[in-house]
Design a protein that fits this description.
The protein has 132 residues and is an alpha+beta fold. It has helices spanning 38-44, 71-75, 118-131; strands at 8-15, 30-35, 53-58, 62-64, 78-85, 89-96, 103-104, 108-109. The chain is globular and about 35 Å long.
């Protein structure tokens, strides 16, 4: 997963239930979209210890493509957080206010990558050599 500042991170959310493992990953109950700010990226660049988990509360996020049967559950409000486990492995949790329901995303292996501009120098050198 490539993370870049000021781009959306979109994760599928599924109702946590006994049939969760048999659900089609292409048909989530909704999607969670959050803008990757510099602060959020800094939090995501951690790799917790094997028995540790880091919870990152989300203040600003958007829910998209909500399954019609869940709009009532979400109407009274909700809050979301990202969970970072050892690996690092990223997942999201959405908790509707006043409801027993919980929505989760499948865990995603995540190794943040950074563009240090090194490839750009190599490309320039190869273009210069091929021009000679």
């Amino acid at each position: 997963m490539e993370l870049q500042e000021n781009t959306p991170l979109i994760l599928p959310l599924f109702l946590l239930s006994d049939d969760l493992e048999s659900r089609d990953i292409e048909r989530p109950d909704m999607q969670l979209s959050v803008n990757l700010t510099a602060e959020l990226l800094a939090n995501l660049c951690q790799n917790p210890a094997p028995e540790q988990s880091i919870s990152i509360p989300l203040e600003r996020y958007e829910l998209k493509d909500i399954e019609a049967s869940y709009t009532d559950v979400l109407a009274s409000g909700h809050h979301a957080q990202l969970l970072l486990n050892h690996g690092p492995v990223l997942s999201a949790v959405l908790s509707p206010s006043g409801a027993e329901a919980l929505f989760v995303s499948p865990p995603v292996d995540m190794m943040p990558t950074f563009d240090l501009g090194l490839d750009d120098d190599e490309e320039e050198n190869s273009h210069e050599q091929s021009a000679n």
